[in-house]
Model the fold of this input.
Amino acid sequence: MQHEAAGSVRQQVSAAEWDVRVNLAAAYRLVALYGWDDLVFTHVSARVPGSEQHFLINPYGMMFEEITASSLVKIDLGGRKVMDSPHEINPAGFTIHSCIHAARKDVACVMHIHSLNGVAVAAQKQGLLPISQQSLFVLSSLAYHDYEGLALDAAEQPRLVADLGDKSYLMLRNHGLLTAGSSPADAFLYMYIFEAACAIQVRAQSGEQELIRIPEAILRGIRAAASQVTRGLGSNLVWPGLLRKLDRSNPGYRE
Done:
């Protein structure tokens, strides 16, 4: 039955949309594989190619490790389904994503997680510290957004968009991490670096010695070089390997 559903959805969408569906489903399963999922309570959304109004998001209640290309739900900026699906979504969960997609035409994928390391650093007044190479890549394009309670109120959206600006990384204080990329591959790669930087910081802070901060001059140099270093890395190099890893450990996302 699942193969039939996949065939039915694939016949209704463009080849470009199906490709995004496969990669977005893979991103969900990789989030689960790396242990960043929070049961069913976060989201990764992707813009439908060729559309400024339609997006793909997870069916609410499905575990990230279960998501397939055909089970993803196509919605508009208001969180309303625009294609028949037996699945429902969590409209409130799209509150953060919808305003970013509306404001940032360069962003094709928004990934938001509640990883334990990410929330731990998001609860620290100084936020992410320049103490690792991973942190420098994040700090080259990092913004912060103060906690305003559960992200259910549309009134928060303009402030969130203003705080993000043109950055690729957003730390939601007391809440979690968010990345904005040009594809599911890039959004995932950014999140991998973001989560790694937070994990390193939490571990480093558990020791008794004073932390060594990387000098500001080096950070300025990373800001200048970061786009060249990471450009295309997600889709051209890392992503195919991650898909092979997923094919070995949790295949089925292409259905």
The longest strand covers residues 176-181. DSSP finds nine helices and seven strands in the chain. The CA atoms of residues 47 and 55 lie 4 Å apart.
